[in-house]
Amino acid sequence: MNLPELETSTKATVTAVDAAELLGVDRRTVSRGIADGTIPSIRVGRRVLIPRVRLLHMLTGHTEPAEQAA
Fold first, then answer.
1. Residue 62 has what pLDDT?
2. H-state helical runs in 1-70
3. Strands 13-14 and 42-44: what pairing?
4. How far apart (Å, rounded) are the C-alpha atoms in residues 27 and 13?
5. Is 1 exposed, middle or buried (0-12, 13-18, 19+ CB in 10 A)?
6. pLDDT of residue 50
7. What is the pLDDT, as a whole number, of residue 67?
8. How far is CA 38 from each of CA 8, 53, 69, 70, rounded to the nearest angstrom?
9. Would you say 16 and 5 are in contact if contact means Cβ atoms under 8 Å apart?
10. By the 8 A CB rule, do 16 and 31 touch?
11. What pLDDT sits at residue 65?
């Protein structure tokens, strides 16, 4: 996943693997960020998911796709 895909996605959440790919770090680094609260997350059963809009806001300061934010 890359930033334009994150911006245009219609999914409510992304996985730790998707976030790691986007950030260019190992999945364990994302897991540590989730554990220490620096990466927003929600737990659904045993799965830990990252809210897409909150991740987008964390990375860019925007919550809307680039073409709508203008």
1. 72
2. 3-8, 16-23, 27-36, 52-60, 66-69
3. unpaired
4. 16
5. middle
6. 97
7. 52
8. 23, 15, 25, 28
9. no
10. yes
11. 56
CA dist., res. 53 & res. 13, Å (int): 8
C-alpha Rg value of the chain to the nearest Å: 12
- What would the two tokens of residue 10 be? 């219609």
14's enclosing H/E stretch is strand 13-14
Query: Which residues in the chain come in under a pLDDT of 70?
Result: 63-70
Confidence at residue 61, expressed as pLDDT on a 0 to 100 scale: 84
Per-residue confidence (pLDDT) for residue 63, from 0 to 100:
65
Strand order, beta sheet including 13-14: 13-14, 47-51, 42-44
> What is the per-residue pLDDT for 66?
54
